[in-house]
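dude i think i finally got it to work??
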Amino acid sequence: MPTILVIEDDPQVRQLVKEALTPLGTVITAPDGQVGHEIIHHHRGIDLLITDILMPNREGLSVVRDLRKWDPHVKIMVITGGDRVFPADILVDVAKISGADVTLKKPFSIEKLRTEVTRLLDERLKELAGKG
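look at this
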């Protein structure tokens, strides 16, 4: 079963994403970028990272850049609602430049989330099968 790491500081969004994706794989959650970064470096075998951008302790783009250096093959989805200083459209563009495979602007539908996650996991599993 694939492993999905969800880094999201809003507890309600984090729980909603976890519940929506549990049928698709093992879902690990982190409340901020620092905890997520620690999980990435201590847990081998993450297939998909889903991270918010604007969070306390460590922002999501920093985690994305580090993960791309550490394991460039992990699939990455960035979710963001932006804020007054950094609108979501700008953050989506920066996320793509930083290495995100997919970006979703909040609010997003559960169907859209599941569709994109399924597609990314299928790509990841095909890549892993090709290595074997």
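The longest helix spans residues 110-131.
im so relieved honestly
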